[in-house]
Prior knowledge:
With 118 residues, the chain is mainly α. It contains five helices and two strands, in the order H-H-H-E-E-H-H.
Amino acid sequence: MLWRIDPAGDDALYAQLVAQVHLAVARGDLATGDRLPAARELAGSLDLNVHTVLKAYQRLRDEGLIELRRGRGAVVTARAAAGLPPVEKALAALVQAARAANLSAETTAVLVKEAMSR
């Protein structure tokens, strides 16, 4: 799995990692039993503080997406991922409506973030 972090992005670095794992599980790139990289290894490869990665892993654990096992690392749980196809279909409709309304990608993203926070 390729990890991408945008240090200049609006979202916290740990939140970006959490979102990437959720997306990878939903798309089937990560399956039950798959191991995530060790926190130190991932932090080193992304030039992040190890505590940032650990915070992301703790959030994923709290959400039930991974188990943290001493000596074995972070492992994806058997929790089923929500189906991505209905979301992709709704996003396609949203993009079409946003383009018809001449909204920028940034404005559309803000509207989605506001809707998700309700």
